[in-house]
């Protein structure tokens, strides 16, 4: 009996030492997603609670289904050389996180003992989650919780915020490439608007060429279009501006032509007010959805990170 207890304590001690000294690398880090596509969280040292892990998995599974964003969250004690950025970039490259078509991969790394954190976005996601947005999420949500040692709160609220931004960007498509009914309506509206703007531009060019005037200064030559540009007027409409010049005397003039009277504005995903409390609204265990696979996405270094 004492021998069994001694072996148990020795094993427990060995595991504890391993956890304390291990520097995780992309090659030795377990990747649960490959065995179960609903498991987006790598939590080999059980730093996050099971409830927080399940909640994050549920959010990111929905995000992948609705918007095609393939996200992985890594929470460990230490990473190689205590460099969360390099670790994240190497991990993203090692697996090819995100689809090759959209490059909409998302990687969040937390190394609690190194006291480092990093958000990395695929090249196709940098417009939805620019560096400034990632930094705002970190400064307002992640870092305050990290400084308190509340790993669950830090990861849950950050993932929730980033997911909300991604869900708000309807230019991202889901994993099947299907669009919702309201998304189809918006797409049709954009196509019509683009077609009308195109016709307006053609009309403006034809009209400008048709009414090329005689130079009012020397009256010996017609004005020639030397430059065009698009600008927004005080009435908020878009105009095409033609710059004219006389080849003979150098006289210059400009003329504006309206491109369209009805200008459509895409809704910007602005700053959200994020509620705290990782246990609200996203509870439940992770299911078994079959093994996942990565699509060969690429990362260009976009995102934000730091230490706490």
From TrEMBL:
Keywords: Membrane, Signal, Transmembrane, Transmembrane helix. InterPro entries: TPM_dom. Pfam families: TPM_phosphatase. Residues 43-164 form the TPM domain. The keyword Repressor does not apply. The keyword Transmembrane helix applies. The chain crosses the membrane at residues 187-209. This is TPM domain-containing protein. Residues 1-19 form the signal peptide.
